[in-house]
Amino acid sequence: MDLHIVDDVESVCTLLIEIADHYKLKAQAFPSPTAYLDYVESGDYIPPALAVISDVDMPKMSGFEMMGKVRSTHPLLRFVFVTGYPEIELQHGRACFYLAKPFSIAKLAGLFEALAQCANDGPNAENYGCSSKGDCSCFNIHDWCCPRAGAATDTPSKSVTLVGVQGRPHA
Question: Is 52 strand, coil or helix?
């Protein structure tokens, strides 16, 4: 699986899965942070090759709280937060990307491409242009830095190939 999507709104999960599918990425949706944490704690858990895409404001637990819990056992897992409320106070460390709703498909495709580069070649935010791909300014983040900077590179079980906006493959 390339992406795990955590959102309490089913239509958002469906839309993100369809967009991922368009770019030849496999995605699995979870209806809540607790459902995702149950999966993480199960013996069947396989981390996504690219990232967890999560809403922020959900019942019982925020996406930020979920990220903190997941990173206690999977510290190198990449997270992308998507919300219609970017003024929510950030908690529990930094994510790779932040997107404010509504967002363009082209912007999401740019994030997929940067995530694939990171998964395949290791973290290098400067070369991938990560700081300009998300909506950090909407979240009042002016000092963004890669949360994986200095981390050991991934050893993915497979190379992730992203079919780009123009239909050409991007590795």
Answer: strand
Give residue 128's Cα distance to chain centre.
15
* Band of pLDDT at residue 157, cut at 50, 70 and 90: very low
Q: To 10 degrees, what angle do helices 10-22 and 105-121 make?
A: 70
- The C-alpha angle with vertex 8 and arms to 35 and 137, in degrees rounded to 5, equals 110
Q: Quick one: DSSP state of residue 53?
A: E
pLDDT band for position 144 (cuts 50, 70, 90): confident
Q: How many CB atoms lie within 10 A of CB 56?
A: 24
How long, in residues, is the chain? 171
Q: Is 83 helix (H, G, I), strand (E, B) or coil?
A: strand
Structure-token pair, residue 164: 């780009």
The whole-model pTM stands at 0.84
